[in-house]
Amino acid sequence: xxxxxxxxxxxxxxxxxxxxxxxxxxxxxxxxxxxxxxxxxxxxxxxxxxxxxxxxxxxxxxxxxxxxxxxxxxxxxxxxxxxxxxxxxxxxxxxxxxxxxxxxxxxxxxxxxxxxxxxxxxxxxxxxxxxxxxxxxxxxxxxxxxxxxxxxxxxxxxxxxxxxxxxxxxxxxxxxxxxxxxxxxxxxxxxxxxxxxxxxxxxxxxxxxxxxxxxxxxxxxxxxxxxxxxxxxxxxxxxxxxxxxxxxxxxxxxxxxxxxxxxxxxxxxxxxxxxxxxxxxxxxxxxxxxxxxxxxxxxxxxxxxxxxxxxxxxxxxxxxxxxxxxxxxxxxxxxxxxxxxxxxxxxxxxxxxxxxxxxxxxxxxxxxxxxxxxxxxxxxxxxxxxxxxxxxxxxxxxxxxxxxxxxxxxxxxxxxxxxxxxxxxxxxxxxxxxxxxxxxxxxxxxxxxxxxxxxxxxxxxxxxxxxxxxxxxxxxxxxxxxxxxxxxxxxxxxxxxxxxxxxxxxxxxxxxx
Length: 513
Description:
Helix 9 (about 230-240) packs antiparallel against helix 16 and helix 14 crosses helix 18. Among the domains are: about 120-305 and about 400-425, P-loop containing nucleotide triphosphate hydrolases (Rossmann fold), CATH 3.40.50; about 320-375 and about 450-510, no CATH class. It is α/β, with parallel strands linked by helices. The termini are far apart. The chain is built from 18 helices and twelve strands. A six-stranded mixed β-sheet has the order 3-2-1-4-6-5, with helices on both faces. A two-stranded antiparallel ribbon has the order 7-10. Strands 8-9 form a two-stranded parallel sheet. It is about 45% helix and about 10% strand. It comes from Scleropages formosus. Its main location: nucleus.
């Protein structure tokens, strides 16, 4: 018996020769280059991948965002220090330009000082005083939903007692957010003191230098709701022609934050020339705009509210709006939510209504609080305050001064313009508006010496308030918690402002239920 041994066949090796491997790589490069060339001819661009961000379901999302923000701040500071060191190195070894070294040091010191003091309370107050001193006519913009709360007695008294014999004109803005009957009552009430113009500023104007209307007719239609400020512009042009001084008429636009000062200027100009937004404090410095051949309008930052004001007035005029409301039924109808016992329950119902849910179906009350505050800060909600039943002149105003103010303007044209504005603009109805009680005129700060630094808060802290004292980064991160505290105002009972934050444009509010 013979045994035959058969050897197993070896598997073929997968190794390639270098020539073949290089040939494959070359073919792939040529193929990709051909695809890119064809895509370039067709105009197809590669889609840029966007950062998806941190998902809401991720644990410790706030910690991750805080670390990312800190890294970005470190990178910016490191790049700025490297740039500064490179410039200083070049200047150090430049023996022929000693004067340039001194000038550079002075510029660095001035820039650091400006960046430190800019946008502080004293800076904003000084900018407001510059606008008042440089203007011949002062326009005080009022919110038609609460005109009395938007008035600043200190500002009006300063304008009337100024040496330049300045004229004060009131503009009742946002008349579409209040019932028409209530707007008429306020016009009659305010015109007993100063000439008042009904106005509806357009908030959808585009920058004409960046975008052109494809159709002129469509462009006119889009600007029609604001009437291009025809009545107000005609009054200013008539006054500019009647005055005896030479040069263009300078008109200063002043008022509390978020009453629509920049939007009024944009409507007069017919294009977006001033930055305007829902957030308060968008305008930080004075800005001069030519709206006509003989008229210049100066935009100003908002008036700083005095810490001596009541809590409701402070929160309304300085930071996110808060109101005292006895009837919660209007809020239930406005947001279409059932009855609630406290603020947390209201936020929970609002989050469920808007499908603002976290992981596990938990309502996101913080996000609901942000939406709630944005509604009250902007012009989305329709509410109104009734004018006082009795009228009395303030102590700084007399009947002679009222007659003199009205004599400077064409009151017949003013009344016709107000009637046309109320007739042509669709105002909110009484049924869809919330009735509120005005807190009265709001005291403002015009003297820089009276302005305390915004970092100090300008008020005493109550129980339940937490102060971030470590650094600015932690203070920025805690904005969401401040919004959450602000949203407790939804019960509309016993609200009290307890602190102003420096650049966060928000307030901490305590609600004692």
